[in-house]
Amino acid sequence: MTPIFTKLAAPIVGPYSQAILTPHAIYCSGQLPADSSGNLSTSSSMASKTAACIKNLSVILTEAGSSLEKIVKVQIFLTDMKDFTKMNEEYEKWIRHKPARSCVAVKELPKGASIEIECVALP
């Protein structure tokens, strides 16, 4: 197992890795809509928040030698399911090959975020 870290993605906010590379998969930790300095998006747009999460996943996967196109499973956490449609509209612009996915509503997320996205990808 190899921990993956890149300064191009939002920094971690706890005792974990941005991702773990194994011979068979890359397990990416949940990404918040934050920039590489860790500043949470101030946009009210769910589209821009979704894009920020996916951009973070993209640079982490690139650091691990993979890409968004190799994602096999996505897990999305929303604090309000009213955002589901707007999230989906942005999500499908980035991830077009339709990997397995689940989306759940949660009471709250770290740093007061309204969305968090994690994934598993092939190396």
Q: What's a quick, concise take on this entry?
A:
This protein has two helices and six strands. With 123 residues, the protein is of the alpha+beta class.
Explain this structure.
This protein is of the alpha+beta class and 123 residues long. The chain is 24% helix and 27% strand. The protein is built from two helices and six strands. It has a six-stranded mixed sheet with strand order 1-2-3-6-4-5, with helices on one face.
The low-pLDDT segments are none
**What is the C-alpha radius of gyration, as a whole number of Å?**
13 Å
Helix content: 10-25%
Order of helices and strands: EEEHEHEE
By DSSP (H or I, 4+ residues per run), the number of helices equals 2
